[in-house]
Design a protein that fits this description.
CATH architecture of the largest domain: 3-Layer(aba) Sandwich
Structural class: alpha/beta
Number of helices: 13
Shape: globular
Largest sheet: 7 strands, mixed
Distance between the termini: 36 Å
Strand content: 15-25%
Order of helices and strands: EHHEHEHEHEHEHEEHEEHHEEHEEHEH
Radius of gyration: 22 Å
CATH topology of the largest domain: Aspartate Aminotransferase, domain 2
CATH superfamily of the largest domain: Type I PLP-dependent aspartate aminotransferase-like (Major domain)
Bound molecules: ligand 7TS
CATH class of the largest domain: Alpha Beta
């Protein structure tokens, strides 16, 4: 039996197979306990009160910032901005850095594998500044050739924004190599870490990331809290994204000066409870250890892909190598719409994602209107994989073939 399952209240007393971990991960009781403890001992508005509860709330909030900074190898805690999620983090970079720095003749380079969160903000910047949006196209297995990278990332590039791990292909992109190219041409490197942070150790310095975004809920934290890491010098020269309370230094009737980073980017009352929960999720994940996470995912993914390969009507997307999937297996069953597959699996208490996975340009590129996706995490088990493969083998029959 998987030793971690007992920590997850949602798995107790049912036979649900949860294979939609790339959408959101489940939460161990330790995370909820940390949030309850904050609530019961010092819930007050952080960063402004002069009384004990508010001071304590501020301390917990800043300790969570420190935990997040350590987690991704940021040099300074002030390089960590709490946001709602990856989407908001990427929008912050687009609205603040993108709109103020880019213009006609500049280029923003992204890939066709991006989640919509790493496409739409750049479309907006492109529309508003006249900068051109340039796409990197991968090979069948999700990897980029050196020629593709070198041809697309040129002196015109001002921003290169790439997903660290694809939420559809599962492939880990060579961020360091892309960042070196971006920097050689004077561009900043933005990394969407939504799908990497739950699965692999991240060090923003080693990756060469100037900005790095991730979500708490995908690594077992609560929904509504995310992180934007930004290099200190860049954050200091950027204009605020949202304005209002707590992000100011002085305000007069018609003007204002802004607080130092990170406060400059955290307008309004912050999500301290969420930050505390995220910090506990990080501690929990580090307690499990990335070696265990990776080893379990690889073992389960291999079993799952080998199982699906025995079913002739199943098409698998991405690399042939299960070790290159980060636990994400995207597939289709001939003649079956993925929505029907997911719906019929639900009747068997199996949860997967079906549709375009917020990556419509990628679906078009793959020539698939939509796909089904199973995404695993370290708390899943071999018997779940076996039950899943058995069910997939019956889907066509259930759907009337
Ligand atoms: N970037 C990637 C690579 C993602 O996979 C997701 C969410 C996001 C950004 C957005 O994260 P959010 O927390 O701001 O919503 N991906 C998915 C998914 O694959 N299924 O549901 C959500």
């Amino acid at each position: 039996m998987n030793p971690y399952r007992k920590d997850f209240p949602i798995f107790q007393g049912n036979d649900v197979i949860y294979f939609d971990n790339a959408a959101t991960a489940q939460r161990p009781y330790q995370v909820m306990e940390a949030m309850r403890e904050f609530n019961d001992s010092c819930n007050a508005n952080p960063l402004r009160g002069l009384y004990e509860w508010s001071v304590l709330a501020t301390e917990r909030y800043e300790a969570a910032r420190h935990t997040a900074a350590q987690f991704i190898g940021a040099k300074n805690d002030s390089e960590i901005i709490f946001t709602r999620n990856t989407t908001e983090s990427l929008n912050l970079v687009a609205y603040s850095y993108g709109l103020s720095k880019l213009g006609e003749g500049d280029e923003i380079v992204i890939s066709i594998m991006e989640h919509h969160s790493n496409i739409l903000p750049w479309q907006m910047v492109s529309r508003n500044t006249g900068a051109k949006l340039v796409y990197l196209y991968p090979q069948q297995d999700g990897t980029f050739t050196d020629e593709e990278l070198e041809e697309k990332i040129t002196d015109r590039a001002k921003i290169v924004s790439i997903g660290h791990v694809s939420n559809v292909m599962g492939v880990t992109n060579p961020v360091r190599k892309i960042a070196d190219l971006a920097h050689a041409h004077g561009a900043v490197m933005v990394v969407d870490g939504a799908q990497s942070t739950p699965h692999i150790p991240v060090n923003v310095e080693e990756l060469g990331a100037d900005f790095f975004a991730f979500s708490g809920h995908k690594l077992m934290g609560p929904m509504g809290i995310g992180v934007l890491y930004g290099r200190q010098e860049l954050l200091e020269e950027m204009p605020p994204f949202l304005t209002g309370g707590e992000m100011i230094e002085y305000v007069t009737q018609y003007d204002a000066t802004y607080a130092e980073v990170p406060a400059k980017f955290e307008a309004g009352t912050v999500n301290a409870t969420g930050a505390v929960g995220l910090a506990e999720a990080i501690r929990y994940l580090e307690g499990v250890g990335f070696d265990t996470v990776t080893e379990t995912e690889k073992r389960l993914t291999r079993r799952l892909m080998e199982g699906l390969r025995t079913i002739p009507e199943v098409t698998l997307y991405g690399s042939e190598d299960p070790d290159k999937h980060s636990g994400i297996v995207t597939f289709n069953i001939e003649g079956c719409h993925p929505h029907d597959v997911a719906t019929v699996l639900d009747t068997e208490h199996i949860d997967i994602r079906a549709g375009h996975h917020c990556a419509q340009p990628l679906m078009k590129f793959l020539g698939a209107g939509s796909t089904a996706r199973a995404s695993l995490y370290f708390y899943n088990t071999e018997s779940e994989v076996d039950r899943f493969v058995e069910a997939i083998g019956k889907v066509r029959h259930w759907l009337g073939y």
